[in-house]
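Milestone 3.1: sequence recovery, worked example.
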């Protein structure tokens, strides 16, 4: 209480209730004890406080002693609380400054020990005295009562209540968290005690709910919050996305083609259902729903949001053509990605928490190769109605992806390429043995068939500038010129001798079939993929010995581990913790490198430990060819004239990271020219985002709410997690080794440029695809969409929050079944033929997993059945109260 307010004056009155209380409780002692309590002004006892004389005692004391609080200890408040409140009110005291204590039912009638009963009565009254101090006066008001009712729970109790209230003419909202009403009764075969058919009783009532004009049914919904007071509540309800619209005809075609199977909770997990399902044939509403938890991590982490889990699920069933079409819906360069993608999807694959990631990249390659071998590619058709012209500068992965998506939106893209061939770094930076150029050309030809024009030998800043493009009628420009400039080490001798090359230039010469002399003893400086590619290429050009010099350890090496292993298998040597400090030569030809040993110090900006020279460790190493592959950067020699682009300190173009807009209206940029040297799939992501941004820009729409995917940081997972709620924990999932893709023999392949990896067979692809855990259940393969004649599938559907106003809320959420696994003596979960009552109900139900036949898990009928009742529910060791 506020100490500045006057102290309360409390009157305490203890009733004998004849002998009902006084027969066990020492009423006089109670009254004497309470008289000593703080703030108690008067404490009395009387035979019958509820009588008129008893009430008059209270009224008189309130007036004489100016009492502002009253406590009566007697019988149940349910019986006489209104009586004493009226007495207080008659004396001029607010009735809500009254507190009643039940010492008849709670003390006298439940005890035989007089002393203990008395002590308990004192304790209860003392608590009431403490409480009444904090009570505040209230006034009765008349308010308008909302006649509408919310019922939470769509089992038989909720259904019956809804029907009776609705029949009385009042609006009812019936909220059920499952996709259908019916509750547990829908699982039953018979009802107790009449053994009537459960469905025969329940189904008509369910239909009545759906058809009743006064009932609004909200299935697959949950109450988020309740505010207000009795008679006037405001309730927020989350309607979870069903991903199936109301025009579903319940034909079931979608479920037939869904490649994902999961345990069916309606059958107590004794049967399987698809990710798109209807709980049972008589479900209300009688529509399907898609069970979609979190999106699979492979898709979330992919820069273009490729539905990897979707095409893998299809491939696991041998549905390769469907899988290929799904890949092409999102990926304009699937042949390339199946060969050279750095597969961040595999880095985040949950299967790694079991054994090893699924071979996602290799499966993509197999599927697209299979498509080509069976009459493909099956390319999407662009709209016939054409929109404006868009210029794309650069034909690497960013430019090709942008052109592809713009063409499918109805635009007429023209790609301007500086090199004599299209493909950018795909064409000149990746060796033939990793990416056969005929396959790259096949991808480019497919994009050209969409209406894309490609002009080679056309360089920005040399043959045209940005102003020229707008004058020629192009309405927007996307700059995707890549990062083709090799960075130098800037060490003595680097520019002075023949036989010294730089990685990107070296690979470009080889890929363009230009003369590229090579010695017998080659050094490659660097630890990235370009360095590995240069080393393996040097072997194929005839070098007898190739050594990679890297200044850190293998742990810090940025090249892919698989590429490092392939290089070593071919005979490439790798020396770690070494760095050249000077190039030496004689008669204009390189002959050696002066090198120093390194040791690792503190981490640098990249997070890797910084290499530090070891004093006094300089030494010479003999080489007749040196390839420096330490990094690369964009060539921005076109940034001149009246319209110039803002650059970063790394010589990359500055853009809005969301929209890819530059500082020049209508000019966008992306890929390596913005990010610096990055991966193929990251550049493709920029190309797809640029296409969407350009479309919004030309349509006059705000550049926001983009649908193109950007990879996001995922929450960490542990072996104790699950791919979805029906699956075992990762650590309990059976192990199955990852299939290794076949390769050419290292000694054979090091002498030629044939493709090293040979791909999966059909059997291998299916076997590897079946390792997928179907994370999140629905893997968004879109097979359901393709067979739905009603076009009722909508994967973009979102949860919806609605607000309703009701006067009363009825909770009918039913019961939870007890998990009997803790009841060790009964063997549930340990022995195969021990069932719960609900499991047994499903076995004997004609619509259950066995069609009503009682069958054991081995398919045979049991010789006898034992039924144990009330297990656990009346065992205090497992359940504190009887159910």
């Amino acid at each position: 209480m506020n100490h500045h307010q006057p102290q309360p004056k409390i009157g305490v009155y203890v009733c004998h209730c004849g002998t009902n209380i006084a027969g066990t409780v020492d009423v006089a002692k109670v009254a004497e004890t309470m008289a000593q309590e703080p703030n108690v002004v008067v404490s009395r006892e009387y035979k019958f406080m509820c009588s008129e004389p008893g009430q008059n005692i209270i009224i008189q004391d309130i007036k004489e002693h100016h009492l502002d609080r009253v406590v009566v200890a007697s019988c149940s408040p349910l019986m006489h609380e209104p009586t004493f409140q009226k007495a207080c009110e008659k004396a001029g005291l607010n009735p809500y400054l009254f507190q009643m204590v039940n010492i008849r039912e709670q003390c006298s009638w439940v005890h035989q020990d007089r002393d203990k009963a008395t002590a308990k009565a004192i304790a209860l009254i003392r608590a009431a005295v403490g409480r009444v101090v904090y009570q505040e006066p209230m006034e009765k008001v008349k308010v308008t009562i909302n006649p509408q009712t919310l019922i939470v729970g769509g089992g038989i109790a909720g259904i019956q209540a809804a029907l009776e209230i609705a029949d009385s003419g009042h609006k009812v909202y019936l909220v059920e968290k499952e996709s259908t009403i019916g509750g547990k009764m829908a699982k039953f075969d018979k009802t107790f005690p009449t053994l009537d058919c459960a469905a025969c009783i329940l189904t008509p009532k369910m239909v009545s709910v759906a058809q009743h004009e006064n009932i609004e049914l909200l299935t697959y919904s949950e109450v988020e919050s309740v505010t207000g007071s009795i008679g006037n509540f405001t309730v927020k309800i989350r309607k979870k996305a069903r991903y199936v619209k109301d025009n579903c005809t319940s034909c079931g075609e979608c479920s037939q083609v869904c490649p994902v199977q999961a345990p069916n909770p309606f059958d107590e997990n004794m049967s399987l259902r698809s990710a798109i399902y209807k709980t049972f044939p008589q479900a209300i509403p009688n529509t399907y729903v898609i069970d979609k938890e979190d999106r699979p991590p492979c898709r979330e982490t992919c820069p273009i949001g490729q539905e990897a889990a979707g095409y893998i699920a299809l491939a696991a069933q041998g549905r390769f053509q469907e899988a290929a079409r799904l890949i092409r819906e999102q990926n304009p360069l699937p042949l390339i990605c199946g060969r050279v993608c750095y597969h961040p999807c595999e880095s985040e694959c949950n299967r790694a928490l079991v054994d090893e990631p699924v071979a996602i990249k290799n499966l993509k390659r197999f599927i697209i190769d299979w498509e080509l071998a069976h009459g493909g590619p099956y390319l999407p058709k662009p709209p016939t109605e054409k929109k404006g012209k868009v210029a794309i500068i650069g034909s690497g992965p960013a430019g090709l992806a942008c052109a592809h998506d713009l063409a499918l939106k109805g635009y007429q893209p023209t790609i301007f390429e500086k090199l004599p061939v299209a493909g950018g770094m795909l064409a000149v930076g990746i060796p033939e043995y990793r990416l056969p150029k005929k396959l790259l050309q096949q991808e480019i030809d497919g994009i050209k068939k969409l209406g894309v024009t490609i002009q080679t030998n056309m360089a920005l800043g040399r043959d045209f500038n940005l102003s020229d493009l707008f004058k020629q009628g192009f309405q927007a420009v996307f700059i995707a010129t890549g990062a083709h400039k090799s960075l130098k080490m800037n060490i003595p001798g680097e520019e002075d001798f023949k036989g010294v090359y730089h990685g990107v230039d070296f690979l470009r010469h080889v890929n363009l079939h230009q003369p590229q002399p090579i010695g017998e003893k080659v050094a490659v400086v660097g630890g990235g993929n370009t360095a590995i590619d240069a080393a393996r290429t040097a072997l194929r050009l005839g070098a007898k010995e190739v050594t990679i010099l890297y200044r850190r350890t293998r742990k810090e090496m940025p090249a892919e581990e698989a590429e490092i292993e392939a290089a070593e298998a071919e005979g490439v040597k790798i020396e770690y913790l070494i760095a050249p400090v000077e190039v030496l030569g004689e008669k204009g030809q390189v002959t050696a490198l002066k090198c120093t040993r390194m040791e690792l110090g503190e981490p640098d900006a990249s997070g890797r430990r910084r290499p530090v020279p070891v004093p006094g460790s300089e030494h010479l190493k003999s080489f007749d060819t040196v390839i420096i592959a330490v990094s690369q950067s964009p060539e921005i020699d076109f940034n001149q004239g009246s319209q110039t682009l803002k650059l970063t300190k790394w010589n990359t173009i500055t853009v809005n990271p969301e929209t890819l807009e530059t500082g020049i209206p209508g000019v966008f940029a992306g890929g390596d020219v913005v990010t610096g040297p990055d991966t193929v799939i990251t550049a493709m992501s920029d190309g797809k985002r640029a296409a969407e941004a350009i479309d919004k820009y030309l349509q006059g729409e705000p550049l926001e709410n983009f649908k193109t995917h950007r990879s996001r940081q995922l929450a960490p997972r542990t072996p104790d997690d699950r791919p979805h709620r029906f699956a075992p924990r990762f650590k309990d999932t059976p192990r199955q080794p990852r299939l290794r893709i076949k390769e050419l023999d290292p000694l054979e392949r090091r002498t030629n440029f044939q493709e090293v990896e040979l791909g999966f067979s059909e059997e291998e692809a299916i076997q590897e695809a079946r390792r997928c855990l179907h994370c999140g259940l629905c893997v968004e393969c879109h097979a359901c969409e393709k067979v739905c004649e009603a076009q009722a599938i909508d994967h973009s559907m979102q949860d919806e929050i609605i607000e309703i106003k009701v006067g009363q809320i009825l909770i009918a959420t039913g019961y939870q079944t007890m998990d009997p696994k803790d009841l060790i003596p009964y063997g549930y979960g340990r022995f195969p033929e021990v069932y719960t009552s609900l499991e047994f109900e499903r076995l004997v139900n004609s619509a259950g997993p066995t069609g009503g036949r009682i069958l054991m898990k081995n398919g045979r009928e049991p010789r006898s059945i034992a039924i144990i009742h009330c297990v656990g529910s009346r065992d205090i060791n497992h359940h504190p109260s009887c159910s």
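The chain has six domains: 10-132, 149-291+796-801, 297-378+720-738+758-779, 389-475+663-698, 485-633, 816-883. DSSP finds 27 helices and 35 strands in the chain.
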